[in-house]
Amino acid sequence: xxxxxxxxxxxxxxxxxxxxxxxxxxxxxxxxxxxxxxxxxxxxxxxxxxxxxxxxxxxxxxxxxxxxxxxxxxxxxxxxxxxxxxxxxxxxxxxxxxxxxxxxxxxxxxxxxxxxxxxxx
Length: 121
Prior knowledge:
Layout: H1 3-18, H2 22-32, E1 33-40, E2 44-46, H3 48-61, E3 66-69, E4 74-76, E5 79-87, E6 95-104, E7 107-115
Parallel strand pairs: 1-7
Antiparallel strand pairs: 1-2, 3-5, 4-5, 5-6, 6-7
Helix pairs in contact: 1-2
């Protein structure tokens, strides 16, 4: 995939993970992620319904928080990484971390999530 395509997918990824409307979020997810997308962090989820349910729960517990990209995307060979932040307007970097993506057929195939443990303790 081209760098611009990867950058666009990652920008849309952060929009999806901050979208509190389940209908628009699910429609965007279907365009963005493969059907069997895999997310691994302190948990492991496979497939759009499971990931959507996790996002819904996460955002319900933190109603003012939003995800945002902190660094430019670095990518090669359909793999990319980017640092992110998650927090309320008065502390937007309350939680920080890094995502590593793999891409296949123009969609996100997998996502590995790392939290910045020193900051988030």
